[in-house]
Amino acid sequence: xxxxVCGNLNYSSWSMRxxxxxxxxxxxxxxxxxxxxxxxxxxxxxxxxxxxxxxxxLVDGSLSIHESLAICExxxxxxxxxxxxPEDPKLRARGRAIACEMHSxxxxxxxxxxxxxxxRALARPHSPEVxxxxxxxxxxxxxxxxxxxxxxxxxxxxxxxxxxxxxxxRFRTYGxxxxxxxxxxxxxxxxxxxxxxLEGLAQDAPAIPEYDAALG
Length: 216
Ligand SMILES: N[C@@H](CCC(=O)N[C@@H](CS)C(=O)NCC(=O)O)C(=O)O
What we know:
By secondary structure, this protein is α+β, with helices and mostly antiparallel strands. It has helices spanning 13-25, 42-47, 68-78, 89-104, 107-112, 128-145, 159-173, 180-191, 193-204, 209-212, and strands at residues 2-6, 29-33, 57-60, 63-66. Strands 2-1-3-4 form a 4-stranded mixed β-sheet, with helices on one face.
């Protein structure tokens, strides 16, 4: 069976992304939580799976894949019926572009408003860098959702949604006001049964005080 080597599912945004892809694809898998920043030897545990020293890592027999987006792509190839990318090549290209933008960008938002699924902070003013990241993400949402034939970024649920899910939870955690189309998108994500399962796992995950400090 596949094994997803992952971090704490309340905080580890990169771990959540392939977790969602695997769940949507209905591929059986086990998680191996390394105890990120809580358990002794967590870093060595990660290094025993990947020299990159980061989670997630997907283990499939003798193959270990690191990098969340590469794992999502592998899951899409294992389960084509799940249509983790749309059939239309133009829509697929758009999806890959925004997934890559998420994977490589938005560092101000990622550093300042860290993922914390179960937490709720008081809304507060953002730095110009964080405000610019939020504006760009809402622009991606508007452009995608106003043309999508469905509730999700590319219409049906896809890897693009796996990539942006943690950002949507950050907006909820830090009280970021959303325009109506982004509000409806967030509601559609939060209604998905496997997202509700993830929220349940996040509730029970151990606290990491240095990440909770971002709540202010
Ligand atoms: N680009 C990587 C980022 C992975 C990453 O930064 N993971 C964090 C947890 S969310 C991690 O392993 N941190 C451990 C460390 O930095 O030592 C991916 O997409 O998988």
